[in-house]
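step 4 of 6: structure.
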Amino acid sequence: AQKITQTQPGMFVQEKEAVTLDCTYDTSDPSYGLFWYKQPSSGEMIFLIYQGSYDQQNATEGRYSLNFQKARKSANLVISASQLGDSAMYFCAMREGQLRSQGNLIFGKGTKLSVKP
Amino acid sequence: EPEVTQTPSHQVTQMGQEVILHCVPISNHLYFYWYRQILGQKVEFLVSFYNNEISEKSEIFDDQFSVERPDGSNFTLKIRSTKLEDSAMYFCASRQAGFEQYFGPGTRLTVT
């Protein structure tokens, strides 16, 4: 079974509008972390936001917020006020286990976001 | 702002040749990783490295792969005898004790 599922291969959003990118995960470990990375066409991986499994509040970083629903095992990324520069691939990833473990990331297949002017 | 650097940005090699990909992690980071991304696919974990030894590796990381931290700054991935299916973007990442892994810009490996 997939550990990280991103069901939207591609999404379109109008500039200045908000968009939600879906991510569901599967783990039996009570301690885990969830990440979102942005990959522009240039190829680099840019860290956006992190949510720990024990965090009480949803993570926010500027225009990015993570809608964490633990019981549903979902960690959707919300981008507010979309900009043309937000057009990119977005990957959801999970780290299983305690932070002291080596913490390799498991990635989803990604969602390609296109922002329309 | 400190960043992970990788060289070369693009490497072309012939099948069967050895390649070494270079990474300089962020200087005070403790954990180091290699990932790969075959074109159009998801990023896959290869290996993690901590305290001068491999701490975890995936099934992709077979005997043709090796990693080294030859000095205090470099972290290398060696592929001994490249195959066509090794063509991919290879990312190095590092983290300190915290959560975020910071990725380098990647090396695109093309095996012909």
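step 5 of 6: annotate
 - Chain B touches chain A at residues 31, 33, 35, 41-45, 48, 50, 55-56, 58, 89, 91, 93, 95, 97-106, 108 (CB under 8 Å).
 - The longest strand of chain B covers residues 43-50.
step 6 of 6: archive
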